[in-house]
Amino acid sequence: MGGSDVSPGVSLRLALAGAWHVVRGRSLVQFPRVLGLLEAVGRAAPAAVRFRHGVRLRLGLQAAVVVQMLQEAQPDGKIFDAVDSFFPEGDAAPAAGHAQATPQELAMVAEAQESFRDLVLALLADRGRRAAYLQGPARQEYGEPFLEALEHLFYEYLQRVESALPPPRPAAASKGGVEARPSRTPPL
User: Fold this and answer.
1) pLDDT value at position 10?
2) Distance of CA 186 to CAs 89, 179, 180, 182, 183, Å?
3) pLDDT, tens digit, for every residue of 27-72?
4) Three-state SS across the chain?
């Protein structure tokens, strides 16, 4: 057997199954890997998922990571790095490359990114405000209902990507060394 016997569709399905396990299991520490997969799928097949759906999922996963970092009281520098990575100042560039994005949608994404960035930076600057936010509004805005909504968005994302993939093909029988034999039905 030379080369890879696994089709790209199978590899993608396996990677998406792993991402589903991460999202469904609420393994927020692994969400950046899911984001990387979403980015790769978006570059390879931008029309597979509507722009708005993909952006809502991406921004939600990013926000969940940053809020978890705040809840865990991770070092401010680490949170700043995450904010700069996920919500770069004045930059909606990750969204701008999508062919289906309208100018209005790009403006909404930029506004959402800027708003979340400003919130997190304000919380980092004021520990009292951060504690109050994490005890009340953060639980309401980014708690279990938010994570359930993200799970649902990701499930819909999986369905859309799956519908864009070619149907799975069984491996050729000769590749595995076993010949397929036609079944014989006994006469009635």
Assistant:
1) 85
2) 72, 21, 18, 13, 10
3) 999 999 999 999 988 888 888 888 999 999 999 999 999 999 999 9
4) CCCCCCCHHHHHHHHHHHHHHHHHCCCHHHHHHHHHHHHHHHHHCHHHCCHHHHHHHHHHHHHHHHHHHHHCCCCHHHHHHHHHHHCCCCCCHHHHCCCCCCHHHHHHHHHHHHHHHHHHHHHHHCHHHHHHHHHCHHHHHHCHHHHHHHHHHHHHHHHHHHHHCCCCCCCCHHHHCCCCCCCCCCCC
Nearest to 65 by CA among 33, 89, 40, 41: 33
Alpha-carbon span 28 to 32, nearest angstrom: 8
Virtual CA dihedral for 81, 151, 50, 19, nearest 10 degrees?
A: 70
